[in-house]
Amino acid sequence: MATTAEPRTFVRPDGKEKVTGAGRYTADLDLTGQLHARFRYADHTRAAIVRIDTSRARALPGVLAVLTHEDVPDVRYGQLVKDRRLFAKEEVRFEADIVAAVAATTPELAAQAAALIEVEYEPLTPLTDVEAALSEDAPLVHEDWASYEGDDALGREGNVLGCSTIVKGDADAAMASADVVVSGRYVADGSQGAPIEPRAIVAQWQGDRVTVWSSTQVPFMARSGVAHVLQIPESRVRVIVPLLGGGFGSKCDFHFEGHLAALARAAGRPVKLVFSREEEFVAPDHRREGMVIELETGARRDGTLVARRGRLVLDGGAYCGEGGFFAQLAAMHACGPYVIENVHIESRLVYTNNQPSGSIRAPTAPQTCWAVEQHMDELARALDLDPVELRRRTLIEEGAESPTRQVFGPLGMKQTLERAVELIGYGRELPDGEGIGFACGWWPSFGVESGAYVKLNADGTGTIVTGAQENGSGAVMGLPLLAAEALGMKPEDFSILYQDTDAGPWDMGSSGSQTTLNNGRAVVEAAREVRSRLLELAAGRLETDAEDLELADGAVQVRGAPGRAVSIAELAGTGATIIGKGSGRVPDTPATSPDSACVGRLGFESFLEPQLITHAVHVRVDGETGVTRVLRVAAVHDSGRILNPIGASGQVYGGVVMGVGQALTEATQFDEAGRQRNPHLLDYKLPTAADAPQIDIAWVETPALDGGPNGSKGMGEPPCVPTSGAIANAIAQATGARVRQLPMTAERVWEALQ
Amino acid sequence: VSASLVVASSVEEALRELASGARPVAGGTDLVVGARQGKAPLPERLVAIHRLDELRAVREDGTLRLGALVTHAEIAAHPLVRDRLTALADAAAIVGSHATRAQGTIGGNLMNASPAMETGGPLLCFGASVVLRSAAGTRSLGVGELFAGPGQTTATPDELLESVEVPLPAEATGSCYLRLEYRRQMEIAVVGATAVLTLDGNHVADARVAITALAPTLRRVPAAEAALRDGDAGPAAAEAAAQLAAEAAEPISDVRASARYRRAMATVIARRAIEIAAARARGDDVPIPANGVF
Question: Which of A382, A523, A528, A708 is 20 to 30 A removed from A747 (C-alpha atoms)?
């Protein structure tokens, strides 16, 4: 079943313009009469606002709008909890809370005006330690949390924004009877998506309708957000995304589009915002959440996992944003893709005065997997078992039961492990200071509504009109492969109209690795409707039954009689309307047992068609400095059937390199007040091309029974899930030292070796 | 945004602009990036010197004379630098990224006066001097006298760095610049060390050691040099000298490392630099940049 990826030559339609620099991004857009926006951010990370005086800013010539909370509807927004206003009103809660916004004729004037706004505060002691925020006498980040509109399943209580448990069997009793018990505490710093394109937004009103060009991953969510905060119907908001220069999750969620739409309305002119690099670090409510992860696992001598207890605390930062579901997702990752007889996990997402957390590529998974996989290696050591052998005995397979008693269908988890063992050459002698480590992880597929149209043009080419968003992963760019397959055409024959909320059907956006899974099905369904229409038209022309016809090589032909054919161009050129629409059936969430006493159920208590991953990593550690170099990564994924190998491999290469950064160098460091100390690319250390290891990829293609087109699953997020865990285990193999803080910087490795 | 930019077509014109308050720009890799990052706004007036070809020359007459506009990439590739001033090649080859090295100049690097600059330690150890020119004339001063503090030089605002002069060391000299690096490109030194050793047979006739990013300015470490002199430059001597180099450090704790780690790394990096310099002095072939070895 396992096949090694082979290159395919389909060049993504947006590839050339991106590579040559011809592509146009939001920041490249300039409109006649356009003004420039600037935000006035909080002067404290936690303070009561006593007074805001904008008169000096308003008096500055060239300033056309200055807005505060008084100038917009008094509504809160947020996905699972509505806890934030466009402009801070009573209190500021983190360093980049927005107090006011300015639109002026030049960026310099806008900056000057923003600085002229006088804000009087009563400073309060910021709450920046996530464990301290849990204590009984901790001040509340949101005094009025109980009055906020929020999802009842979150289990909110004071600073706890979300609480989730997984309880299976009796973990305490099983732990007491285990042959071997290991425990460990792991702490992960927060990190960033760090897209190379800082976000940009342009808003323009025409009559009572506003068009917002935004570098967002979720245009439909941006549209509903603008409508909500301005209290106008959604139909009056159009969101267009020019080329998007990376997101990695950090451009999910509605946010700054609301400020720009409000500024443009107040000024009566188009307004543009382009973030500086520092703003791109500090202002988005998107940081990969810092976590404290405490694990205890009991096993029998043969490796059987009889019990796991876990306590997880996640730093949610100042606002919910779109990250309210993190506690439950982290709880699932604390179990991992293993068979565990008894489980008791408690996971809490907690408000602090730090930058809000939000989805960054596979939220909660890399950090939790990093902890769990080190913990598994520590258990293997205590059992005197090889780490691979322990995983071999405990990973899930078809028919296994999850911690919430979901019963799995066919899946290739164990096969990914075996293939990674082969690829990395495990077991051979290594030079001193080198080591090989393994980590296994998983990530759910997300079934949601999605839609597309396919229409044929008079020259016989096609256009896919989709609501799906391309964030760079190539998921939208791969849609022509699916349409072409259904219609016997070439993928190059299709153009794509996308990233415009007035054109495509609603879509969740580029999040949850869901584009191919859901929009792929929609495109296939739409193409099939086109196919029926073509067969119907051709049947008339060829004087035969539609059932006797087939589509191949750009023509409709009579089966078994290649001479009797009519080209698609000929049919489309008649002026006949040839259009199909599709949405595809949304897969059901797999059943869980009601007796698994979980709280905080937000839909992640079972994993639809999980994507399964093993990474094996070969590192060299400089024992004197602690500097770790990743030499080689073997990445083996079961993401179901692979539809576009070149695109899928691209996701793995990028995800692994992101994983290397998260493992070794990437961390947002806060000072005691919760201000970022390294909001720039010199000291927030992304790996460079020169740091990228050799990456060998293999696929285990277990067809998904209830997934995307042709048995596929999602692909975008999983590649960064187990990388840091495998690196951690490789460091331990190489040095004998465990590093229980993420990232495992040179200094932390060195400290562990002292 | 600067209010004015004059592209000088002669050194004299550039000097007139400087005298009337303009600041020079060549590669712009510190100035422009710093302004974007909010470190310091762009000066009101700029004079661009990038077209002054006379500042681009490399001459050799027992002393290597590098014009201010010579780029890091050119230095790293220069055969004489690689052969005789190897530590300078080690340093120039790891400044920033490929783009920084193609664009950034030695003159700008020196006048930016960062205590973390890569090329400063080697220049200090090789006894290099800089030629500063103003409308009033030229003067020469040692690289050590140029640095006044982080980002500060002893040059007056109307002076332009015209060239850097590096005397070629004696035969049987080996040198090395090494830094602690967390990643392979786009890196800034957290700890750096330079060693220049001249051998007489098996004994050290002359030794120079400098530390980088470990004090407000780059500094030589006379105690470490003295410890190496007349010794065999073997492992024990290298370790002893490296510890003296670390003792001369005034490390700080910041976002890049703790003072404790910096001090410990000062010993490791200095020892390795000394060992590689000794190996090169003996004729061993150690790749450039030396950082690539680790």
Answer: A382
